[in-house]
Design brief:
The structure is a single chain. The protein is built from nine helices and no strands. Helix 1 packs across helix 4 and helix 7 packs across helix 8.
Length: about 180
């Protein structure tokens, strides 16, 4: 493994290790020492690359939220009609709730931080704003806001239920929310 100046990917490995640890042990169980060990870097690298744990957490959660927004952008960007956009929204709900426990835990850990710390609330707001921008390619702003909340809520419900709802319920919810959007078209 490269070290020092010959290790340009060190900062990225630290962020990845932090996300992995948060997913496994939660924010409370994540420490500089554990992250450094997981990333395979000297402990001193932590303070070289990040001012403290809070900066590392913000960077890690920014990367995580950007990866979720990228899924929104990819799926909605491929849609060229309102019906394709509705299908993309249904796909998002089922993709985000498809059993990826890591994403579910990271999302909830970020929500918990946001409930307590304004800087993380701002990160969540930016995530929501970017998600809505992707939705607004196909739906008016009010409908995009409702769909964004529905995607989040249904994804969480599907992921946590012992018997998650089927796609028909998702499609019906999308149709109900977007019905008024069709009337304006």
């Amino acid at each position: 493994m490269a070290t020092g100046q010959n290790d340009p990917e060190r900062r990225e490995r630290i962020i990845t290790a932090a996300l992995d640890l948060i997913a496994e042990e939660g924010v409370a169980g994540t420490s500089h020492r554990k992250v450094a060990a997981r990333a395979g870097v000297p402990l001193g690298s932590m303070t070289y690359h990040f001012d403290g744990m809070d900066e590392l957490l913000r960077e890690a959660f920014t990367r995580f939220s950007s990866s979720i927004v990228a899924v929104f952008e990819e799926r909605l960007g491929a849609a060229s009609t309102a019906d394709e956009a509705r299908t993309a929204v249904a796909d998002l709900v089922h993709h985000l709730s498809s059993g990826n426990q890591r994403e579910l835990v990271l999302t909830h850990e970020l929500y918990t931080l946001a409930a307590r710390k304004p800087a993380y609330r701002e990160l969540i707001r930016e995530w929501m704003r970017r998600s809505r921008v992707a939705l607004e390619r196909h739906f008016d702003p009010a409908t995009a806001r409702q769909l964004d909340a529905m995607i989040e809520g249904l994804s969480i419900h599907r992921a946590l239920e012992t018997e998650p709802h089927d796609r028909a319920l998702t499609v019906e919810a999308i149709a109900r929310i977007t019905r008024s959007d069709d009337a304006r078209s």
